[in-house]
Specification:
Catalyzes the condensation of (S)-aspartate-beta-semialdehyde [(S)-ASA] and pyruvate to 4-hydroxy-tetrahydrodipicolinate (HTPA). This is 4-hydroxy-tetrahydrodipicolinate synthase. Helix content is 45%, strand content 15%. The chain starts with a strand and ends with a helix. Helix 3 packs parallel to helix 4 and helix 6 runs parallel beside helix 7. With 317 residues, the chain is of the alpha/beta class. It has 13 helices and twelve strands.
Length: 317
């Protein structure tokens, strides 16, 4: 199974320190309406490490039910324990996940052979597609292209979400891995890299920004697939200030603040993450106020609440 298009790395809404299931359901339905190809639940953006097993199960069930088969549901199941990764992956499969997103084991920094064996055991255990998630900045270890090439030969391994930040490595992956595995999907794990990655032959993005602007990210990815380079570049440039705002502090702090400002379900982040600093929050508000996809509810509300202009958001006029 190949993966192509725009996939949203969902935030997990919390309210009064509890899981906001109604908010999560509303967010999924908004993503479906925005034309997104699929959603990722329990990823980094979803603050999965802070959630209990019970909360994770509830979140998976809610997303699967809310998606109602209209979009692909991908569940993040990776951890630094191979045993736990397999257990969580089997649970996600049982609960109706269409695919798994599995990050490089973090903190313990395994060797390249250890990384391969981690994915090898997982591939022997499940029966749904696996997307490898390479994020050396968070995990402390890069999946080298030669290692990914071996992993791509395993059953059920269908693609990679690349957040290496190294365009040369992406080009190597597209050249080497896809040469031998044409159906292997290469997705950007960084919104800002979507344009160059797809220009080199990638298939799409797992996006944070699409939590707020699903239709805009869909439009960008669609334009790239159709070869409408100028349209794609214009969309990228319009999105760029917000994409940079999403990097002002650790993900998902900025995207949750942005969604709260737009009166969309997000709520607080969980410790050890904290609310955005007032200085950066003001920067975020100013950027949203200038975005072609958002308008301020009123000048009186400046700095407190921004309202999504649904017509602009959905139609991208």
């Amino acid at each position: 199974m190949g993966f192509e298009g725009a996939f949203t790395a969902l935030v997990t809404p919390f309210r009064d320190k509890q899981l906001d299931l109604k908010g999560l359901e509303a967010n999924v339905r908004r993503q479906v309406a925005g034309g997104i190809s699929g959603v990722v639940v329990l990823g980094t953006t979803g603050e999965a490490p802070t959630m209990s097993d019970e909360e994770k199960e509830l979140a998976i069930k809610t997303v699967v039910d809310s998606a109602a088969g209209e979009v692909t549901v991908i569940v993040g199941t990776g951890s630094y324990s191979t045993k736990k990764t397999v257990e969580d992956s089997l649970r996600a499969q049982k609960l109706g996940a269409n695919a798994l997103l599995v990050v490089t084991p973090y903190y313990n920094k395994p060797s390249q052979e250890g990384i391969f064996e981690h994915f090898s055991l997982l591939a022997e255990s499940v029966k749904i597609p696996i997307i490898v998630y390479n994020h050396p900045g968070r995990c402390g270890q890069n999946i080298e292209t030669a290692t990914l090439h071996k992993i791509a030969s395993l059953p059920y391994v269908s693609g990679v979400k690349d957040a290496s930040g190294d365009i040369n490595q992406v080009e190597d992956v597209l050249g080497l891995v896809k040469l031998d595995h044409p159906n292997f999907s290469v997705l950007s794990g960084d919104d800002g890299m979507t344009l160059p990655l797809m220009a080199l032959g990638g298939q799409g993005v797992v996006s944070v920004a699409s939590n707020l602007f699903p239709s805009a990210i869909v439009e960008l990815v669609s334009a790239m697939h159709k070869g409408n380079w100028l349209s794609a570049r214009n969309m990228h440039e319009q999105l760029l200030p917000f994409l940079r705002a999403c990097a002002l502090e650790t993900n998902p702090v900025p995207i949750k603040e942005a969604m709260n400002l737009c009166n969309l379900p997000a709520g607080e982040v969980r410790l050890p993450l904290r609310r955005m600093s007032q200085k950066n929050l003001q920067k975020l508000v100013d950027i949203l106020a200038e975005s072609p996809f958002v308008k301020l509810a009123s000048e009186q509300n400046r700095g407190r609440r921004v309202a999504v202009d649904k017509e602009v958001d959905l139609l991208l006029r």
